[in-house]
Amino acid sequence: MIRVVLPPHLRTLACTEREVQLEVEGSPTQRSVLDALERQYPALRGTIRDSTTQQRRAFMRFFACEEDLSHEAPDAPLPDAVARGAEPFHVVGAMAGG
């Protein structure tokens, strides 16, 4: 079971709590976790990744185990603590402006 923490705007869109739990087959990767998240919460399709290219949206970031995983390859394995459910995978809406 993979734990995913969502930012407030995505929680509202998905009508869910701060943390969700997902079943992911095989070794969890960013791609497999986001695929499972979009399957379970269809309203999130296109909000975290572009619907066509599957690229991470510019102001979305991914963190786990105090590491920024935003620029890691989508199919790289997530840290073992995330795979075991000991640590969550965080989806963060980055802020910009001046």
Description of the structure:
The protein has 98 residues and is α+β, with helices and mostly antiparallel strands. It is 22% helix and 20% strand. The protein is built from 3 helices and 5 strands. The protein has a 5-stranded mixed sheet, covered by helices on one side. The longest helix has 11 residues, at 30-40.
What's a quick, concise take on this entry?
This protein is of the alpha+beta class and 98 residues long. Helices cover 22% and strands 20% of the residues.
Secondary structure: elements and pairs:
Layout: E1 2-5, H1 8-14, E2 19-22, H2 30-40, E3 60-64, E4 67-68, H3 80-83, E5 89-93
Parallel strand pairs: 1-5
Antiparallel strand pairs: 1-2, 3-4, 3-5
Spans where pLDDT lies below 50 across 5 or more residues = none
Largest sheet: 5 strands, mixed
**Percent strand:** 15-25%
Please report the total strand number as a whole number: 5
**Rounded mean pLDDT score:** 94
Key traits:
single chain, 5-stranded mixed beta sheet, about 100 residues, globular, alpha+beta, 5 strands, 3 helices, about 20% helix
